[in-house]
Every structure is written in structure tokens, then in C-alpha cells.
Amino acid sequence: MNLDALAIDVNQTVKVSILNPKTRQPIRDADGNEAYIELVSLDSPEVVAVRKAATNKRLKARGRATMTADEMEAELAETFVAATKSWNLIALDGTPLKVDLNVATARVVYTDPRFSWIREQVSEALDDRATFL
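Now predict its structure.
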């Protein structure tokens, strides 16, 4: 019996279109290029490592009664940062944005309340395993 027929490629990336929060249509520039964030699955080794590190940190801090909401949100943001492999960001008015992808800028996108609509779309894509099939 070969279980490989059930396996999915956890390292495969998928470009998730960024939808305008008002119209729910893909954001495009004047040339028709779509805004997107390219993601790897939550099951990829690098994302699993980030999630395990957060869990280990919590387990070591067992003396504390609870984890704060801010700490939980920060952990989730770090998971999204690890899952983000590339992006093409376009302003709501269709202006292409030249924003380099690095840990610092990705962290801003996933933590700044002004961009929560993007974070929500990334969360939805990552939470649906079918996105990566």
C-alpha cells in the first residue's frame, strides 16, 4: 500500500488575489495586473516551525495564568509572515505599490489595524486547506 496518493505538496505556493474590501472584486492596476499575496500552506515545514516555537514558548511560561490577546494576535501574525512568500500590492485606486517583502513589512501588513481586511483574506485562504490543492 502506498500512501503517497493521499499526500498533498505542503511546500506548494498559491497566489491569493487581494479583493477590494468594498466591492469584493480583485484589485487591479491599469494594466490589469492583480494584487496578490503568495502563500505556502500552514502545513509547510517553515510555518509549522514557527507555530511550534510559539507553542513551546507558551509551555515554558506555564506559571502564568493566561496568554493575552495581544500575544495571541502576535503569534498569528508571525504565522502569516512565515507563510507569505511574495506579493504584488496595488492600492485601492489601482496604483501599483513598490513595497519590498521582508519580515518587517509583512509584520506591518498583518498587525496594523488599517490592513485588517488584508489579514482577514489571508487568514481565510490559509484556513481552507482546499486553497492549496
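The chain has a mean pLDDT of 93.
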